[in-house]
Write a structure and sequence with these properties.
The protein has 15 helices and no strands. The protein is mainly α.
Length: about 450
């Protein structure tokens, strides 16, 4: 565990961020390994089916991540203020209420699969496979919630290494199972789905066992899983805005997927590969934002305002340096990356994927700034600012993409995303300057 309230700011952020980065990359492996194995051994249609299903699934996953993120910010504040009893009570409240909510969410998801996929204009030749994949993975949402809640609690008290180790084990389990079920037994998308669910159950179980044995600040018994009404209100205040933001973001992604679906199976397969690659590309900026949130929340709870601002500055520098390097790398090696997902014979899909990656790489400096602002404002408890930033960028993404779709095809998605990022950066900078204006005066 790490106290973020002392020591060199940049060093603390880097030490905490690196395990988060590796963890984010491993998290991407859950779905990227599926995509590579499916694309190679089950074909373009199966890859497109998972690609069409992913935006719908992400709404549920990131809704839960939003809920756990809000609770973890509150845990960080209590931990920074050394209020350890409130740390444990907040975790218990979040787990108990979150489990109930996840069960409800699972039922809702199962009912909504068919109507939503049809609304997204999912091509008929991949619709059934998308439905099969989603049925299995949505049933396993409870394991995803438990892992994300427990691992975010560990990160909130400065422990970003332990959950990484469990995620590494689970990622290996996922890859081995998916290879066995897809290549060995020919189960296609259902094999990939079962590999994902089982590996998530493994990561949740390991995390729970470790906390109960090694972390007294978070150790819980079944009798302690009850709701503290006062803390529940705070958890809801923090979590509901973050969860709503994540949901709104991925509803926007879902609508964009509908635009891609209208371009045909080649475009869907290319976009499926691209989104997996972007998951890895943007992992460092997301990890920096997560580290900044914990750093900011702990120092905010301790009243160390100068460290809060120094942390923001360090996070921006780290993000910009990384994104400058990765932009050049992605532009140069886009063909190699796309061919990892698709056979050489699928030249149309490969060409579309390369075109998309090279175009979007020009704008990769923008997420470094966007994510830094998001991490900062989450850390100081100004969730409404992060929510409005999403409200601004998503409608812009969608309106620009659909307006240009008939003329520019898949590149219209790139233009829409870039316009959304630009507006989000401008809004974040204005709010950041206004946040510190009273102090400067």
């Amino acid at each position: 565990m790490k106290q973020m309230t002392e020591g060199h700011v940049g060093k603390k952020l880097m030490q905490f961020m690196l395990p988060l980065l590796v963890g984010n990359i491993l998290q991407q492996l859950y779905f990227t390994a599926d995509a590579i194995i499916i694309g190679r051994f089950a074909g373009k249609t199966a890859l497109a089916a998972i690609g069409a299903a992913t935006p719908f699934l992400n709404i549920f996953i990131f809704l839960m991540i939003g809920l756990t993120m809000g609770a973890s910010i509150l845990i960080s504040e209590f931990y920074g203020a050394k209020k350890y009893e409130q740390v444990k009570e907040t975790e218990a409240t979040a787990i108990f209420s979150g489990t109930i909510f996840t069960v409800f969410l699972t039922a809702l998801g199962l009912l909504a699969i068919n109507p939503i996929l049809k609304l997204m204009q999912t091509p008929d030749d991949i619709l059934n496979q998308s439905v099969q994949y989603l049925h299995i993975v949505i049933i396993g949402l409870i394991f995803s919630f438990l892992y994300n809640m427990l691992s975010s609690s560990l990160r909130a008290i400065g422990n970003s290494v332990s959950s990484l180790a469990f995620l590494f084990i689970a990622s290996i389990v996922n890859i081995v199972l998916t290879l066995l079920l897809v290549r060995g037994y020919g189960l296609g998308v259902t094999g990939a789905a079962w590999g994902t669910v089982i590996s998530q159950a493994v990561s949740a179980g390991l995390c729970l066992l470790y906390i109960n044995v090694k972390i007294p600040e978070l150790k819980l018994r079944l009798t302690a899983l009850k709701i503290n009404q006062t803390l529940l209100k705070k958890v809801i205040t923090y979590s509901s805005v973050t969860a709503f933001q994540q949901t709104f973001l991925y509803v926007g992604v879902l609508i964009l997927q509908g635009a891609v679906n209208s371009l045909g199976v080649n475009a869907v397969a290319a976009y499926s590969a691209v989104t997996r690659i972007e998951g890895f590309i943007l992992s460092p900026t997301n990890s920096i934002a997560l580290a900044l949130t914990t750093f900011t929340a702990q120092n905010n709870g301790a009243g160390l305002w100068a460290r809060v601002r120094s942390g923001m500055q360090s996070a921006v520098v780290m993000g910009l340096v990384y994104c400058l390097v990765i932009s050049v790398m992605i532009y140069l090696y886009a063909p190699f990356l796309i061919k990892c997902f698709l056979p050489q014979t699928e030249m149309s899909s490969i060409a579309l994927g390369v075109k998309y990656l090279r175009a979007i790489s020009v704008f990769y400096l923008l997420p470094a700034l966007c994510n830094a602002y998001q991490g900062f404002f989450r850390g100081v408890g100004r969730m409404q600012i992060t929510l409005w930033a999403t409200f601004i960028q998503i409608p812009i993404r969608i309106s620009v993409a659909y307006t240009l779709l008939s003329r520019y095809g898949i590149l219209s998605i790139v233009i829409g995303v870039a316009c959304g990022w630009i507006c989000m950066c401008i809004y974040g900078q204005i709010k950041y300057l206004n946040y510190y204006k009273p102090a400067l005066e």
